[in-house]
């Protein structure tokens, strides 16, 4: 019988999961059911209560088996057809403040600092989604909020992949 090995020759943490916990992990890594009580529905499929599923998920987080649990918006299906990555040149000592201001815009789904900066100066990146053509006035307001007029707009032409990693 082969044992799954993690880093450094030690058994990987998920090789030590009970079959029931492994099944919960399988269900959590995919799309969560679109119901008012998704963890209750997962529990029914694996013969556990909603509370037990949530306790297992919390245990995974405490053990470091999962870092975060969040939703991924399929923005094309939600009507956001125009997407741009905006690269901002912001003074390094203002990057955190500018990032917080940009992240506050409802159209921004990702905002992160890049080190080293792209092209030697673009150190703050935002992903911005629009239902209609990119709104130049909005980009102007974002630039004012970030305190810079130096930015580049990269438009999405085609989406190739949007899926989560699968471990189970």
Count of discrete alpha- or pi-helical segments spanning 4 or more residues:
5
Q: Give, in order, the helices and strands.
A: HHHEHEEHE
Strand tally, please?
4
pLDDT < 50 runs, ≥5 residues:
1-14
Quaternary structure annotation: single chain
Mean pLDDT: 84
The named CATH superfamily of the largest domain: Lrp/AsnC effector binding domain/regulation of amino acid metabolism (RAM) domain
Looking across the biggest beta sheet, what order are the strands in? 2-3-1-4
Strand content: 15-25%
Please outline the major beta sheet: 4 strands, antiparallel
- State the CATH architecture of the largest domain: 2-Layer Sandwich
What is the C-alpha radius of gyration, as a whole number of Å?
21 Å
| CATH topology call of the largest domain | Alpha-Beta Plaits
Terminal CA distance: 18 Å
Shape: elongated
């Amino acid at each position: 019988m082969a044992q799954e090995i993690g880093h450094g020759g030690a058994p990987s943490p998920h090789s030590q999961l009970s079959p029931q916990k492994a099944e919960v992990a399988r269900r959590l890594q995919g799309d969560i059911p679109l119901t008012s009580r998704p963890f209750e529905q997962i529990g029914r499929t694996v013969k556990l209560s909603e509370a037990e599923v949530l306790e297992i998920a919390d245990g995974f987080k405490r053990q470091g088996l999962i870092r975060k649990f969040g939703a991924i918006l399929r923005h094309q299906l939600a009507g956001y057809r125009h997407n741009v990555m905006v690269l901002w040149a912001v003074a390094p000592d203002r990057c955190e403040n500018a990032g917080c201001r940009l992240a506050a815009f409802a159209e921004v789904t990702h905002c992160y600092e890049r080190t080293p900066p792209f092209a030697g100066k673009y150190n703050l990146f935002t992903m911005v989604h629009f239902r209609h053509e990119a709104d130049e006035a909005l980009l102007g307001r974002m630039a004012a909020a970030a305190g810079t007029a130096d930015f580049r707009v990269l438009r999405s032409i085609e989406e190739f992949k949007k899926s989560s990693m699968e471990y189970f």
